[in-house]
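Supplementary notes for students who missed Thursday's class. We covered one full example, reproduced here. Read the sequence, then the structure, then the short commentary at the end.
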Amino acid sequence: MLWTGWLDWRIGLAIASAIAFTLMPLMFSAYIRLATRGDRYYDLDLVPNQPVAIVFGAGVWEDGSPTPMLADRVQAAVDLYKNGRVSKILMTGDNSTPYYNEVAAMQRYAEGQGIPREAITLDYAGFSTYESCYRAREIFGITHAVLVTQRFHLPRAVYTCHTMGIEAVGLGTPDWGKFRDDSMRYYTFREVLAGIKALWEVHISRPRPTFLGPFEGMS
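Structure (token representation):
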């Protein structure tokens, strides 16, 4: 009987731990969504005017052209600019090698849509959402911005920028219903895990970005 009771206790503890392990990431994700609910928009006409839009990188193809997700983000920033919602665009992404350049692809796309080069600033060292938000504040001096990214990523982006001292709102571009369901399941699951990392980075570890450098401002 004692052995059976001890075994039942171990099984119960294992089940409780498994449930907690499963639910905790979902709770963190829900917290991030709740904390940013009033600062996320899905209709461009409702987005408050801000001095700058920050567009996050989302991959380029081998020929250097933007992926569909990235093209959607840049197009939304183009629309914000053309509708007078912002006067500058910061494009932040990965240019870690000479053969991979997200921000150059973003710039080409935006200029092809009629955005003047002087309205665009490039951040070549935005290797993650955290690093992009950190550098936006510390290198480019941004204190108010519209963040442009897909809806699944928007809560984390807004939350991270808030903790960096940026009064940010976000414009979410479509994802579910536009991109393949299997891709969106992957991105949604990945985002739940990324939320845990984001909370650790902004509230506990606060790492310096890969590259910081001198202050540049937004001219």
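Commentary. The longest strand covers residues 144-150. The beta strands are 40-41, 52-56, 88-92, 120-123, 144-150, 167-173. If anything here is unclear, bring it to office hours.
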